[in-house]
Amino acid sequence: MSRDTRFANRVATIDRLPLARAALAAAITLAGVHKLVAPAPWDAMVVQSWADTLLPVSTRTWTLANAVGELLVGLLLFTTRYTAPLAAFVFLSLSGTLCYIALAAVTGANVGIGTELLVIIAIHDIGLAGLAARVTLDALTRDS
């Protein structure tokens, strides 16, 4: 057996779910921490006219509430409990965020950051949503 084949066989047997779950958990936890430490950039991503109409609280309160939720979900993802529903929640949440970003970009809504930066954020969120989907599916497959 060649060295390349042996390496490929070892890689094929690696359990990828813990690594993917840890990466997703780290990203969500760090986003929550950053929202608590420096909420202003996150506030700036809100279309204020939409927030005034739709949110029952201030933009800052919304940002901080999201931070607490992200910390909870992110930290729970570091454990092996509830991986599938938590990762599915992250996937759905990011999907909603992507819809919001697309709507803001298409309508030219007044966001506190430039459309170019929104597009960069969307690109990152697409990758993170893909990771969340993969963790969800792997966890569901493992649980069955």
From TrEMBL:
Alphabetical keyword list: Membrane, Transmembrane, Transmembrane helix
Taxonomic superkingdom: Archaea
Regions that span the bilayer: 21-42, 62-79, 86-105, 117-137
Protein name: DoxX family protein
Source organism (scientific name): Halosegnis rubeus
